[in-house]
Amino acid sequence: MDRLGEVVSNRPGVADWTPTRALETMDQYGIRTAIGSISTPGIWWGDAAAARTLARACNEYGAELVRTYPGRFGFFASVPLPDVDASCAEIAYSFDVLGANGVVFMTNYGDRWPGDAAFAPVFRELNRRRATVFFHPTVADCCRGLLPDVGPSMIEYPFDTTRAIVSLLTSGTFSSNPDIAWIFSHGGGALPMLAARIAAQVARPPVADRIPNGAAYEFGRLRFDVANATSPPALAALLRFAPVGNVLFGTDFPYGQMETVVDGLRDAGLAPETLAAIEAGNARALLQLDG
């Protein structure tokens, strides 16, 4: 658990997270409902049995929050990928018994990205359920400590989000699972800037054969949250790239501060209807939330 200890110790506020603290901060910024999920480094440490146990514990806790604080919390279930069979079993339990709002994945699992052919049964099951699937970035084994004094959250997280999207695109996972609602954090990483470049390079066989509707069509189905993406250049790029209806509120709390996102959106000069859609309306419709 060395990596988990490092993440927690380097992030004041993470280790002392409590529902009470979260609700106080939510109330301060007018946030009615939070959808919680396990962030980087996730629950996979190379031990399949431990990952199954940890996934179940996290999901039971998420469901308990929902029961204890009605209307204030939802949760995206963790699954023990890359253990495919156990992941499918946990998906069934999380949706059918616990009432999860969706599933969370990391953008990579060591040296494998989500479009890996071995993971296809997991996404087929999620497509059958018309599930919401959320991705949070983590650093891949290949890319740790590449530059001195540069932590993974500076560069690797947004670029690994982009790698995950490209993996799902080029493998045909997006096109073969049209009923999944895909959400990517942090404004989609570098995708808004690189989308045209990616689309041009996947328009040739054999990759093009796996994307029958084209890259632009698949990109147009993706949703993005605005956590760490409300600086004026980042938000402008995202809103030029994605339909407003595909942009969702997100904060990264307790890793990040809620006020950064709230203030960034409200200082962006957005039309009232656009702001209302991003802050609440889009997520409410997607996740069928009340209030």
Task: Describe the model.
The chain has 291 residues and is α/β, with parallel strands linked by helices. It has a single domain (2-6, 32-287), classed as TIM Barrel, CATH 3.20.20. It contains twelve helices and seven strands. It has helices spanning 2-9, 19-28, 48-68, 84-96, 120-128, 156-170, 173-176, 191-201, 215-220, 232-241, 258-266, 272-287; strands at residues 34-36, 73-78, 102-106, 132-136, 181-184, 223-225, 247-248. It has a seven-stranded parallel beta sheet. The radius of gyration is 18 Å and the shape is globular. It starts with a helix and ends with a helix. Mean pLDDT is 94; it is low at 1-9.
Fraction of residues in H or I helices: 40-55%
How many beta-strand segments?
A: 7
Widest sheet: strand order? 1-2-3-4-5-6-7
What is the correct CATH architecture? Alpha-Beta Barrel
Fraction of residues in β-strands: 5-15%
CATH superfamily: Metal-dependent hydrolases
Poorly predicted ranges: 1-9
Reconstruct the topology from this structure:
Blueprint: H1 2-9, H2 19-28, E1 34-36, H3 48-68, E2 73-78, H4 84-96, E3 102-106, H5 120-128, E4 132-136, H6 156-170, H7 173-176, E5 181-184, H8 191-201, H9 215-220, E6 223-225, H10 232-241, E7 247-248, H11 258-266, H12 272-287
Parallel strand pairs: 1-2, 2-3, 3-4, 4-5, 5-6, 6-7
Helix pairs in contact: 3-4, 4-5
